[in-house]
Automatic annotation (TrEMBL):
Keywords per UniProt: Membrane, Transmembrane, Transmembrane helix
Protein localization: Membrane
Ranges annotated as spanning the membrane: 6-28, 40-61, 73-93, 105-124, 144-164, 185-203
Membrane protein topology class: Multi-pass membrane protein
Protein name as it appears in the record: ABC superfamily ATP binding cassette transporter, permease protein
One annotated Gene Ontology cellular component of this protein: plasma membrane
């Protein structure tokens, strides 16, 4: 994803953006990603692509550059979807930790925060119910709601820090790794082949 993204950054070929975009969609279909998720990803990319297209039409009056950057945004979104839609966040973070030495604190902190999303949602409901009992309505635009959420999260952060310390967690000491992500020779070969093909189409 990173290599193809860098190659596309330094090229100015609309057809290459379209080829990579279609290739990403075919890979997502091969990974059996639901059409709903793919549709949502494409809808999220639409305002960014439209804004880029309109800005180049308005200021540079170049349809070629407008379509180039609009298709490039969709291509970047599709490359990102290869990671975010095909693999879980835990798999991605642990793989980055193993291959790129990402910090233990960062990896497990993100996983802990994601794992607590349901707890945060439940806490928001409790806060709003408690406010209703005092004849108060905490709407989403009320800053008091967010203040109470932040206070609750600060209390949870202290409890999590104590729990991690009791479990022997420390970012400065080695840990026993139970997750192993091996990259096969075929995967390395596929990476080199894609980089050579895309680079050759881009610069020759």
């Amino acid at each position: 994803m990173l290599i193809l993204g860098l190659i596309l950054t330094f090229t100015a070929k609309i057809w290459l953006n379209i080829i990579v975009f279609v290739g990403c969609l075919l890979y997502l279909l091969a990974c059996r990603v639901s059409f709903k998720k793919m549709g949502i990803a494409l809808l999220i990319a639409f305002p960014f692509a439209l804004g880029s297209w309109l800005s180049f039409i308005s200021f540079s009056h170049s349809y070629t550059r407008a379509w180039l950057y609009a298709t490039r945004i969709y291509t970047y979104f599709s490359l990102g979807a290869l990671v975010t839609l095909c693999y879980s966040l835990k798999t991605v973070l642990l793989s980055l930790h193993q291959h790129f030495r990402l910090s233990n604190t960062f990896v497990y902190g993100i996983l802990t925060a994601v794992g607590m999303i349901q707890n945060v949602k439940a806490q928001i409901k409790k806060i709003r119910i408690a406010a209703n009992m005092h004849n108060q309505t905490l709407n989403w635009w009320n800053p008091m709601l967010y203040l109470k959420i932040i206070v609750s999260c600060l209390n949870w952060s202290d409890n999590l820090a104590v729990a991690m310390t009791l479990q022997g967690f420390s970012n400065d000491y080695p840990r026993t790794e139970t997750y192993h992500d091996s990259i096969s020779i075929f995967q390395w070969g596929l990476l080199i082949l894609l980089a050579l093909v895309c680079g050759g189409l881009a610069f020759f």
